[in-house]
Amino acid sequence: MECVPEQPATSRRRAWLEWSPLVALTVLVAAGVVLRFTGRSDAAGLVWAGVTVAALLPAAWSVLRSLWQRRFGVDVIAVLALGGALLVGEYLAGAVIALMLATGRTLEAYAQRRATRDLRALLARAPRTARRRTPDGGIEVVDLARVQVGDRLVVGPGDVVGVDGRTEEAATLDESVVTGESRLVQRRPGEDVASGVVNAGAGFGMLATATAAQSTYAGIVRLAEEATARKAPMVRLADRYAAAFVPFTLVLAGLAWLLSGEFVRAVAVLVVATPCPLLLATPIAIVSGLSRVARRGVLVRDGGSLELLGRARTLLMDKTGTLTAGRPRASETVVAPGGDSDEVLRLAASVEQLSGHVLAAALVRAARDRGLALTTPTGVTEEPGRGVTGRVDGRLVRVGQLDGDLPDWAERARRRADLDGAATVWVSVDDAPVGALLLEDPVRSDARRTVRRLREAGFTRLVMLTGDRPGTADQVARVVGVDDVVARCSPQQKVERVRAESQRTVTVMVGDGVNDAPALAEAGVGVAMGATGATASADIADAVLTVDRLDRLADAVEIARHARRIAVQSATVGMGLAVLAMVAAAFGLLPPVAGAFLQEGIDVVVILNALRALGGGLRHQGVPGHTGEMLDRYAAEHTGLRDVLTGLRGAADLVATRPDAPQVVPTLRAVHRRLVDEVLPHETAEEQRLYPALAGPLGSAEATATMSRAHVEIHRLIDRIGGHLDQVEPAPEEASRAGAAPDARPTGTGAAATGPPADARLRADQVPDLLASLYGLDAVLRLHLTQEEEDYFSLRT
């Protein structure tokens, strides 16, 4: 994909046009000073008067146009000051005011160009063309608007991906422009790719899943265009100040003239009241905030929305896709007695490869995460609402609902799914049920930490809205720690709840689906999860999270509050100093010329202060690079550890229901081997490398003390399971053939690895303690992994 950046010559020409008025006026004012010192005062006055008129005419036209549109702003004071200076012959004061206005406009242009650099970068990088494969095997370059869903595209090295799609080959991507993530991302074949990201590796093929207009980057560009086109700066904050400041200025100038009889005092008051802190400092701070949140992966539509975000106190969140992942995940595979969980998953994922159902994508993703080799199915048919059927390796595989009575193992799986609030997908081979896949919508690992950060940022009330049943909704609410939850909530009820909350305070609503769009429109600030959400919600929202991470909203809130605080501070301090100078001018202590120079100094100070909004304000500063790399590595290993947990839970269930089955000991031995080979090295490495590295970001080594204690318990339980395997006894007939007593058993740790004969049995007295160890380890490990993901891995920015 190709894009057309702004040419350097165009950028230089624009910069010259911005600075040329200030340069010209500065030269003229300096020329007047030279004329004055050479004794040519009349000529100097004429030059300064010309400068004043040059500034007055466009300013007066702007005021008249605003009044015609029934808008009244603070720039009327500048016009009165310029006109008054001409009337009383204070030409130097008028020239300084003109110079001040030109300086302010130039600084504003520079600051806005600096502040909107990231927004303009989005527009400059927008791709225009794409490389599309032709039916005869060739490649053609086509306009991006001609790309259709289903087209096969080629993305070359360094190209910008023009439309949303799915990779056909492995790809290395730079997603920093869209998501704010600085590190490169690896995508495997079949994974989704958002438009706007850059190919940082070798070229790869891609299947288009959306047109250019429907793609992620198109929505981002539309928002960026709106954010840069609008005059966000003064819309709310400055006009609120102006409503009181302009009448106050006019009354004070009138009283100074009336009581002293000197019109020059009124002019002096107007000169020092020229409101550049309102006209310039406020917009610079707000636009700086817009740029910073864009770098964090949050695109805010305009300055008014950013200001509201900085004042919001109530946050309403949709559950699915906001607090949860928004897409199902295969959490467990339950198989019939004697079955192979990997084989069941492989068969199901193979036949689901051609289905577009959301559950099908979850099964395929789970199989690829386990490294299973999928087979291309044949004779695939799909019955909506019932499932998919096809042949894999010559066997008829059906994935979906299960007809007829459920066998005992299947009934237990169904009851467990009901307890967990999980969806169940049944797998049958040649019309015989062989397994069940339990799918869940997991809570985001960073959700609880993000909720805490949102509270720190200033939200005092957090409400979760969901269409789910109360039991599931309450469970998620307890996990993430919100203040209130509304279950079985229809789109209309969401709107009504948002409206009710908005009557008390400024509200923010976060959602990701089409059904959230009305509520987003009703809220003070609607925020769409644009990385995974529907186009309708993103188009109607006031802000879009371009990265699939809710914690970036906390960053945006902190930046918005920081920018708004600096904007208010700049305006208040600037206006405060101006009021003091106005009072001095009203008493005749400050002549117009000195007042003009003083106001110039005040303007420069507040504008420089406003530029502080380009930095600071974030409580969460992330972790050092090497620590972040470790967090990424250990977080990636958690996927494999959860696969071990699935086997652990299956082994525990087998011991609980059929302790005498011949496959119990081999199953336990295989699970124990994975615990020793995968879990223990992971926990040891974390203890020795990761936890010491986290002591700095977390404040002290004590912050990881409880997690270290969990490592000790995990080691203890794994050793205890191994001890039980050391004590298993062979079957009586096997022991008799060996000439040994029935209770003879091998000793030493080698037994767990090599073991007795395959038909060895557990003793009845072992079962209770072994079950306690198996289920206990399952619970401890699950809690431990979840805590690490919430408290540590979410530190990664």
What distinguishing features does this structure have?
HAD_sf, alpha+beta, seven-stranded antiparallel β-sheet, Calcium-transporting ATPase, cytoplasmic transduction domain A, transmembrane helix, 57% helix, membrane, single chain, Rossmann fold, ATP-binding, seven-stranded mixed β-sheet, 797 residues
Please sum up the structure shown.
57% of the residues lie in helices and 13% in strands. It is of the alpha+beta class.
Task: Give an account of the 3D structure.
- The protein is an alpha+beta fold and 797 residues long.
- It folds into five domains: 2-118 and 227-277 and 566-614, no CATH class; 126-226, Distorted Sandwich (Calcium-transporting ATPase, cytoplasmic transduction domain A), CATH 2.70.150; 290-325 and 444-560, Rossmann fold; 329-440, 3-Layer(aba) Sandwich (Calcium-transporting ATPase, cytoplasmic domain N); 625-795, no CATH class.
- 57% of the residues lie in helices and 13% in strands.
- It contains 28 helices and 23 strands.
- Strands 1, 2, 3, 4, 5, 8 and 10 form a seven-stranded antiparallel β-sheet that branches. It has a seven-stranded mixed β-sheet with strand order 11-23-22-21-12-19-20, sandwiched between helices.
- Strand 2 and strand 3 (139-143) form a beta hairpin.
- Helix 9 runs parallel beside helix 22 (592-610), helix 21 (551-586) runs antiparallel to helix 22 and helix 24 (664-698) runs antiparallel to helix 25 (705-726).
- The longest helix is centred in the C-terminal third of the chain and has 36 residues, at 551-586.
- Mean pLDDT is 79; it is low at 1-8, 230-236 and 733-756.
- Pfam families: E1-E2_ATPase, Hemerythrin, Hydrolase.
- This is Cadmium-translocating P-type ATPase.
- Residues 729-759 are annotated as: Disordered.
- Residues 737-759 have a biased composition (Low complexity).
- It is a multi-pass membrane protein.
